[in-house]
Amino acid sequence: MNTNKVLRIxxxxxxxxxxxxLVVLLxxxxxxxVVASAASGQExxxxxxxxxxxxxxxxxxxxxxxxxxxxxLLTARHPDIAIVVLTTYADDTSILAALSAGARSYLTxxxxxxxxxQALRGAASGLSVLAPSAQATLLTAAAAAATAxxxxxxxxxxxxxxxxxxxxAEILTMIGRGMTNAEIAQTLVLSNHTIKTHINRIxxxxxxxxxxxASGFARTHGLT
Length: 224
Prior knowledge:
By secondary structure, the protein is of the alpha/beta class. The chain folds into two domains: 7-137, Rossmann fold (3-Layer(aba) Sandwich); 148-220, Winged helix-like DNA-binding domain superfamily/Winged helix DNA-binding domain (Arc Repressor Mutant, subunit A). It is built from ten helices and five strands; from the N terminus they run βαβαβαβαβαααααα. The protein has helices at residues 16-27, 41-51, 67-77, 92-101, 113-124, 132-147, 166-176, 181-188, 192-206, 211-220; strands at residues 7-12, 32-38, 55-58, 82-87, 105-108. A five-stranded parallel beta sheet has the order 2-1-3-4-5, sandwiched between helices. β1, α1 and β2 (32-38) form a beta-alpha-beta unit. It is elongated, with a radius of gyration of 19 Å.
């Protein structure tokens, strides 16, 4: 991208006040043009197809289609559109999922306008920017993974059944022990929304219709 030209962006956030505020703040910058705004992941995808911006500022947890799935589809359809996540969540699952889906940068909503603008410009130029809290979370997760016992279910990624990720296996083990979503979220220091997302994926991968069937799968495969 020519750095001398105006950066065309889309803002996607389901909260109207946040979305409209970001549009106003960023559109005031002389080198940024907000060409459209979206209230869901699906709308962001449709607008990207229509406007083909240089970058998109994307919230993670939105209706119809969440930001992670939107990022995955955006990357597949428009690999040249830079994706910058702006969210309230800074847990390792959300960060890794977003980056794996194709996001180039990950910011939290305490970022100021200049930081957001810098991340958008950098991402459009191929650079990555991580919020300090996101960097700290990833470092903590990496350190925990390095010291985890190799015999734990969450540490044997190559041996996990049904294509489960280590985190999904860990949560499935907790389900098998009878823990509630709130208890799992508190134990793993994750949001309830993130736990629900993981459980939906676990049910889909294991063919389970409910927690009882998922618990049976866990027992059958030695996860409890």
